[in-house]
């Protein structure tokens, strides 16, 4: 029974089906820029990072170490030309410099020193709704935060900046003082960003139109290498998107790495869905209650799959039976060979091999069962600043203007163009007002 259950699990794992829908109600495109006041000695944490997100999936990426804007989805790499990535790289390098200036400005304004770590972020983008093949703008986002708290946000209805803290008032006054820039920001959020989002929807149609798919969860155990122990495994497969929570629980208490829990993390299936496995070694005689807990956004409530306490290969009866059968077959073949050599059978048929009465399996593996191999499709992790061109605005503006001077609104680093507003804002430390919205020399957030 255990073997049959495992067979079903493998089949479901290999042939999980993909469900799609004709359209998605809500779509979003956002660019996020993060700058630290000083470097930290932690792996994967950089002084400056920028990324593009479509429906919360990363599509491009840049950091202060690699200094290159790269695609994070296959369709981004395939559909967008090399100059898109080259211009995007230059735009983000400029923003990186703008952020360095503005982090220091805000630290001074907040009366902070460089002893502690401080963080400046900028997020901008748009959200739309698709109905009957038409796109409708829902809302735009253009906001800054300092050390995790809201600092400044653009209201695209009133075309004014909102300052939730007193320290943001100097910047608000400067930016609101140039209405043409506010108009440009509004136009970017409601038109340019939407145009780029529409284009990306077309490029990544197959991948991005996937409907949420709930996981199938299994709990099983196999004999461990350590004598007297089994390895209990929880497996969830066929889910989409990839964000999932899995726990192995003992008597309703989650086990951790300190308890020996192991996992390779979330891995891709061949049908664009994902799978994850977690396992832990436990005594074979353990009679405690073990269960697999899995939660995913496609589920109305978490799945709890209890282990039935059985071990798939711990019972040696099956092995003994198979061994006995093999021994009998070998004995039978040996007997036939002896009789053949003595001329007792197959007399007169020279050159003909002695039939054994046992036919070779058609698949050649000796057990009559085909071996299935499942190719694993790697997730693309190479790019993140979409919306070059006018959309560049978004990307080219780290969550704060990056101080980069825009060449023109046709730049291909998304969010450049009008979004440059933040960077081009008249918040320059020297109080100089930008000549026009196409300038890309981002002004600092403003100092008095």
TrEMBL record:
BP-aspect Gene Ontology terms: immune response
Record flagged with keyword Membrane: yes
A Gene Ontology cellular-component term: external side of plasma membrane
Region (Disordered): 378-448
Annotated SUPFAM superfamilies: Immunoglobulin, MHC antigen-recognition domain
TM segment ranges: 320-340
Domain Ig-like: residue ranges: 215-304
Keywords: Glycoprotein, Immunoglobulin domain, Membrane, Signal, Transmembrane, Transmembrane helix
InterPro entries membership: Ig-like_dom, Ig-like_dom_sf, Ig-like_fold, Ig/MHC_CS, Ig_C1-set, MHC_class-I_related, MHC_I-like_Ag-recog, MHC_I-like_Ag-recog_sf
Pfam family, one: C1-set
Signal peptide start and end residues: 1-23
Entry similarity comment: Belongs to the MHC class I family.
Protein name (Swiss-Prot/TrEMBL): Major histocompatibility complex class I-related gene protein-like
Organism: Salmo trutta
């Amino acid at each position: 029974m255990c073997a049959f259950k495992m067979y079903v699990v493998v089949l479901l794992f290999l042939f999980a089906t993909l469900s799609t829908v004709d359209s998605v109600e809500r779509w979003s495109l956002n660019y996020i820029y993060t700058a630290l006041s000083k470097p930290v000695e932690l792996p994967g944490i950089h002084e400056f990072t920028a990324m593009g997100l479509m429906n919360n999936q990363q599509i491009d990426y840049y950091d202060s170490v690699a200094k290159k804007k790269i695609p994070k989805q296959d369709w981004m790499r395939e559909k967008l030309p090399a100059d898109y990535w080259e211009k995007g790289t230059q735009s983000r390098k400029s923003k990186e410099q703008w952020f360095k200036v503005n982090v220091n400005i805000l630290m001074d304004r907040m009366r902070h020193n460089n002893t502690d770590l401080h963080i400046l972020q900028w997020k901008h983008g748009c959200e739309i709704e698709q109905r009957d093949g038409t796109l409708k703008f829902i809302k735009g986002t253009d906001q800054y935060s300092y050390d995790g708290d809201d600092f400044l946000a653009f209201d695209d209805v009133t075309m004014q900046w909102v300052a939730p803290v007193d320290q943001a008032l100097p910047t608000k006054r400067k930016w609101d003082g140039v209405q043409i820039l506010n108009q440009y920001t509004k136009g970017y959020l409601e038109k340019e960003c939407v145009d780029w989002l529409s284009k990306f929807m077309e490029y990544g149609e197959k991948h991005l139109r996937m409907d949420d798919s709930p996981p199938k969860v299994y709990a099983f155990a196999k004999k461990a290498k350590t004598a007297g122990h089994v390895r209990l495994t929880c497996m969830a497969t066929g889910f989409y998107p990839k964000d999932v929570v899995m726990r192995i629980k003992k008597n309703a208490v989650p086990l951790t790495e300190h308890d020996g829990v192991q996992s390779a993390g979330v891995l891709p299936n061949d049908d664009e869905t994902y799978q994850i496995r977690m396992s832990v070694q436990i005594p074979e005689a353990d009679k405690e209650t073990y269960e697999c807990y899995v939660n995913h956004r496609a589920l109305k409530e978490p799945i709890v799959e209890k282990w039935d306490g059985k071990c798939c290969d711990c019972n040696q009866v099956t092995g003994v039976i198979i061994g006995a059968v093999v021994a009998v077959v070998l004995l039978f073949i040996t007997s036939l060979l002896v009789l053949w050599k003595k001329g007792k059978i197959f007399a007169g048929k020279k050159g003909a091999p002695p039939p054994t009465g046992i036919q070779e399996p058609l698949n050649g593996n000796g057990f009559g069962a085909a071996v299935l191999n499942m190719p694993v499709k790697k997730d693309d992790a190479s790019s993140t600043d979409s919306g070059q061109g006018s959309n560049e605005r978004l990307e080219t503006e780290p969550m704060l203007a990056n101080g980069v001077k825009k060449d023109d609104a046709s730049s291909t680093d998304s969010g450049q163009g009008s979004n440059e507003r933040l960077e081009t804002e008249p918040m320059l430390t020297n109080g100089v007002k930008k000549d026009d919205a196409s300038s890309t020399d981002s002004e600092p957030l403003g100092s008095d």
